[in-house]
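FAQ: What does the model actually see?

It sees only this:
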Amino acid sequence: MRRIPAVVTTCAATLAFLVPGGLAAAAPASPASPAEQSYTVVPYENVKVRQLPTQDSAYLATLTAGRSYTAYCWTHGQTITDHGYTNDIWIGFADGFSSAVYFKGDQYANLPASAQC
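And it is asked to produce this:
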């Protein structure tokens, strides 16, 4: 996967957000590559998906606590502190990013270090 500055991009992979009953009607920028590695992530509380890896970026969707979602990569973005955790890692979905602070697992929400956007 190519490396792109996190401040000006969305993840190179594409994903329609999984929501109960089907896929959200978000229009991805480009189709996902069949060879693209994907990972399952689970937020421990409802978390907003933003267009860029900053909390001031445009709101796109909310992921529901306890549900599984498919992510493709992680990137560095705005540092977030919540519930005693501080992290600048954001989990990349095709249409946006969510802070890793809100996901179960390690600082990368259990994505491997090699899964950088």
